Amino acid sequence: MTVRLTLPPRSRQPPRLDSRLLRSRAVRALREVGHSTSELSIAIVLDDEIAALNFEHRGKRSATDVLSFSLLEGEYSDQRGVLLGDVVIGIETAVRQARAAHRGLDEEVARLLIHGILHLLGWDHEESAEAKLMRAEERRLWRAVRA
Q: Which of 3, 18, 38, 96 could be 26's S-S partner, Cβ–Cβ 3.0 to 4.6 Å?
């Protein structure tokens, strides 16, 4: 299993983000959802980058906390190999959310990663019944990956 992690330029990285812990949690989450042989790409980006992606792919003119780009479906799904997809995390938004929730940045980013992985696998939260099931799965995965 390969987890590829891309971080913002060193001068703009949040100093408290533990990239080793994030990779470890990603590996554990993938195992928990039955994708221990899959490859995952995680990009930690700044708000301006995730806002541009959010506009391009969702038509929303704002930064967001996490976006997922699954390769399990769509035009190129038959050519994906072992790559599950990309999870893009807006780190500046994550920092604000962590502060507001009174939790550490590593926990907030891990929770966003779990949310993103579930989206890669087709989970959704548009309908209230779906949202309830997805929240339950997020809690299960959090219990499995937290160190």
A: 3
